[in-house]
């Protein structure tokens, strides 16, 4: 059998190659599912604020229809906002197994696909394989940070394919500042946006062609991560996912992509670079009411799902229908919500949700 370290190294290399060629994603999803021990894989994009989402990439899904139905029918009661970025979770972390089996998503979607469990947002398990176990969680934690960084960089680049010959032209049209650097953080190439950043010296500057940060507190971190890029993807690890370059209200971040492995090697060699540094301003979204209330009142995932349904449709029968649980269970969760939030009626819960959704909300 191939050692786990070798399999992981090859997988991480393939994950970051998707930043230059999105057509590689199906193969990466297959390798990811096989590495963790799952039957299918599909990365999803979800908005905790608007309760919407989509998924355009799948591996081994029986049909696109169930995926679409999930976002059309069930995403509004999704409690994913209760988990931190990068946190690995399965169904049992969201809802008790017995309660989940009575939900619409279990009866109408999971059962029709033969799915028994779900790990994080990108891996499904089938009934023959059984439930998520600790070994799957451990392996999932090894790859989730890399998938996250690849997706972030891919979103910044927003392209289908780039090769070494057209790499400079590709970077030139990006709104983000991009710097190709050698192992000593010396700038080999900067796109137009990057050159403007250097001229303004608000976030970055160069000294003797070495890329440095204006913020002295993180001045040594950036070159250290760049130096690691010389030894490939595994050496950089999770350090280059989102390196903060400034603080709110105008936070800027850098993502470091090694150019010494996979199909990126040719692009790096062509410019004597070991890494590409992508620098952009982060958009700060107002936390959703559900996320805020979950943390403030210490709500359970089940209570959060009921609260979301109450704010969307209202009424015990309607909530029971949307969430897919009995009316008695809805009433039980409502009592828990009343006790934790100091309310007595559903109308008061709805007003509380609206208050937490407002950016002008006064602190209680």
Number of DSSP strand runs:
12
SSE sequence, one letter per element? HHEEEHHHHEEHHEEHEEHHEEHEHHHHH
User: Largest sheet at a glance?
Assistant: 5 strands, antiparallel
Backbone structural class? alpha+beta
Q: Give the percentage of residues in beta strands.
A: 5-15%
Shape: globular
Strand order of the largest sheet: 7-6-12-11-10
Into which percent range does the helicity of residues fall?
A: 40-55%
Poorly predicted segments: 63-68, 121-127, 358-364
How would you characterize the overall build of this protein?
With 364 residues, this protein is of the alpha+beta class. The chain folds into three domains: 4-155; 162-281, Beta-Lactamase (2-Layer Sandwich); 289-357, Arc Repressor Mutant, subunit A (Orthogonal Bundle), CATH 1.10.10. The chain contains 17 helices and twelve strands. The strands form four sheets. Strands 7-6-12-11-10 form a five-stranded antiparallel beta sheet, with helices on both faces. Helix 1 runs parallel beside helix 7 (134-157) and helix 15 (316-323) crosses helix 16. The longest helix is centred in the middle third of the chain and has 24 residues, at 134-157. It is globular. It starts with a helix and ends in a 7-residue tail after the last helix. The model is unreliable at 63-68, 121-127 and 358-364 (pLDDT under 50).
